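Supplementary Text 2. Reproducibility record for the structural model of the 271-residue chain.

All settings were left at their defaults, and a single model was retained for analysis rather than an ensemble. We include the record here because the model underlies the residue-level annotations in Supplementary Table 4.
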Amino acid sequence: MGGGRAPRAVLTGGCESDLTSEHARQIESTGAVEGSVYLDVDGNGTRGGPDEPYPDLGIQLVGANGGVVAEAKTDEAGEFRMGLVPVGNYKLEVDPSTLSGGLAVFGLEEVSSVALGTQGTDNNLVTVYSVEFRVSFPVYSLSEVKDLPPGRPVTTQGFALNSRPNFGDGVVHFQEGDVYLRAINVARANISPGDSVRIVGKTSIDQGLPILEDVSVVRLVSQAVLLDPVELSTADAASADGGLLDAALIRIQNATITDTEPAPGGGLIVT
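Retained model, structure tokens:
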């Protein structure tokens, strides 16, 4: 993932037939830089599953003096190629103005140093440098997610506190340490309480509290933890302990239920 594929050699026609000095031939030699970029939809760092090519991303090849030597954009297949590049050492960069939706680049630092040079005794035989990297949503902890402004696409991880059945309100609660977060509009997923999961969604606000919406969940480890509910009195539960335990798994014992009514958006209000 994110690593450069092995450089390979191709035969190019960059040498003038009447140039006989080795130095002149080397100056005229050219190579190419090619690669592919994909959108890591599930954030797992490996190409496959729901991932898809990322088109229209600007790629730049920068020389030692900081000038742009060549540039290209990825096509519909997420691929790009810059040909007829003089032999030399370069740095591969992404044009940030072509990166949309709060996405970040991952894996480019591992392949950004590009060396194009002649190979063998024939200076026409030069390197084609091949790379692959990905773009994805930035990765945050659950605590960091809760502090982000609404509308920010994110990737995070935690433990599922409830399942996501095929039918229902699409609400799933997640935990990381002593931090809890509620998610709505969660896509159907085969998860169970205690599963370690990767969560991709968008930050939002509901009833004055931070949540995630339009969420997809990928199970990492089944039954990774044994859930331990927080013991609360009815008084503390009424305010979720001042909001600190919003979305937490709790247990109230020895309480008498006097009434229930549907809650806005699904679920029940229990008195």
